[in-house]
Amino acid sequence: xxxxxxxxxxxxxxxxxxxxxxxxxxxxxxxxxxxxxxxxxxxxxxxxxxxxxxxxxxxxxxxxxxxxxxxxxxxxxxxxxxxxxxxxxxxxxxxxxxxxxxxxxxxxxxxxxxxxxxxxxxxxxxxxxxxxxxxxxxxxxxxxxxxxxxxxxxxxxxxxxxxxxxxxxxxxxxxxxxxxxxxxxxxxxxxxxxxxxxxxxxxxxxxxxxxxxxxxxxxxxxxxxxxxxxxxxxxxxxxxxxxxxxxxxxxxxxxxxxxxxxxxxxxxxxxxxxxxxxxxxxxxxxxxxxxxxxxxxxxxxxxxxxxxxxxxxxxxxxxxxxxxxxxxxxxxxxxxxxxxxxxxxxxxxxxxxxxxxxxxxxxxxxxxxxxxxxxxxxxxxxxxxxxxxxxxxxxxxxxxxxxxxxxxxxxxxxxxxxxxxxxxxxxxxxxxxxxxxxxxxxxxxxxxxxxxxxxxxxxxxxxxxxxxxxxxxxxxxxxxxxxxxxxxxxxxxxxxxxxxxxxxxxxxxxxxxxxxxxxxxxxxxxxxxxxxxxxxxxxxxxxxxxxxxxxxxxxxxxxxxxxxxxxxxxxxxxxxxxxxxxxxxxxxxxxxx
Length: 593
Fold this sequence. Notes:
Structural class: alpha+beta
CATH class of the largest domain: Alpha Beta
Number of domains: 3
Shape: globular
């Protein structure tokens, strides 16, 4: 199906004397989700997942992606001429290792420097330099070979009012400058769209599900410059930026501005800036490189206004979810046909009725039966399964509201379930509850807590290869850093004000998938002799399906947590539900009401 793009790329490689080409998923802003203009990897391969790298040589091509997309990639790569490489498995070589075996001394690898992070490009260049293989970071033939390539989006930017953000842009800029000064720097360059959106209290609609706008920013003691297409700015936004002390410049002028910097001490995060801009910084400048940019940590720690907003957003989201679950239950009991796409469409409809709704926060995952085992499954007209009165349905969904971002997964019984399903569900629930109840000392990183969620399925010889938790923005990206909860180490301690997901999963290929996800707010715990401790507050408000619980596997503390959680759900949601919906909710959590 996708041989034509592959053949066009191979012709361009031959013309440029390039013996291999690497195409990552990212764009010049190093985002997880990219505008259609930069979905080069998808155009070449036909694979639509949000993570993956394609490597092409004259006679072979491969796609590397993680466990979330193994099953999806298998389906989408059929007849493409591209081989799937399963990242994370011990037998899978890295793209670099594989290429090393395919290329010979003197060959050239072509990459597009603007869509490679500086850290990854430097590592790539160093790796192949030892093999006497050159990396050409200017290989970008896509404007020529991709005839119907979508344009860069020019949607208008808008202001996020202070009643939602809780702090003026000028105040945030001053705080960022203070962080920069503490590192003996006088300026910084920002490419991450969510970081700039947060810093300047601007939002947009350039990337599906993420309320951001395409731009760059340069922050210094002398001036703050926003590089953006002028068509994106209304008179109101222009006036606002001027009032916050922000200078506007052309998006296309960013590179020229960087190349003209003189004798500056620049704070950069090589993993959050593209190689082309990193390489354009003049040698007269001093670079101070950090793993975590101060603006990312500032953004991750929500202020009181943002926390209050996310609590309200969670309440409205919970109302929408209960209305949906009531609808689903009544449809199934009436033996009405319900498909996976019906689930996605209805969920969006119920959420769109809520105040401040802006969009979904990602494409809904509604996986029935075997589709639930595909971690990031998205139903299509071709795959759309009809629910039957048996088994389980996994629903992972979320919304963007002006006052907060939500992300929730519930696994629900749609009919008869067997004991194996109940045991799997209950062990995952135990892990979710155990992490929810965690208390931990200041300085704890997510890796130190990850085992709490996995321990009960580990005892059964089961595991999941995705992370347990990711940071979540406030009317921003549903995935953000710097914090995470996962098996591998990342030097970002959990701090009060951070919002992180809690989503252990278990996937039985060809049978079913189970995931239970709530969002957690890190808050101070009771002071103790052992020093400063933190704990979690569960923000998500939605019942957990008790039909799937094997109660004998839960201890008293876990049952008490679940009872108290359901009491909170009922108390906060029932005033906004109809009598029928309220009675339904009461029946679903009847142990506590």
